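Worked example 2:
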Amino acid sequence: MVISANGLADFLIERWTGRVPPSITSNDWPNENCFTEEAERVRLVVLRVKTAVDDLGVDEVGPRTGIPATEMQSWVDGRRWPTQLELAQLELGLGNRVWTRSPV
């Protein structure tokens, strides 16, 4: 069996963290729907964050939320999931809900 460098990195990340990175939950993260509902809800959050950064600029969003631009970019790139604390920081800093609005 041959594993590409990206495949090996994804495998190691999963083994170290106990979960897969967002990028492998969709064929084109964050532009296409995810394979699971849980990942899809986070993908929608990431798109809202991306829109806020595009609209306001990273120099505005970072200080408002206390989240470094590099962290937000890692979500958009699909390298890592935002934490619950970061979601709360986003909502407080932006004065807007970013988490899902759909019923459970």
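The longest helix spans residues 37-56. The radius of gyration is 14 Å.
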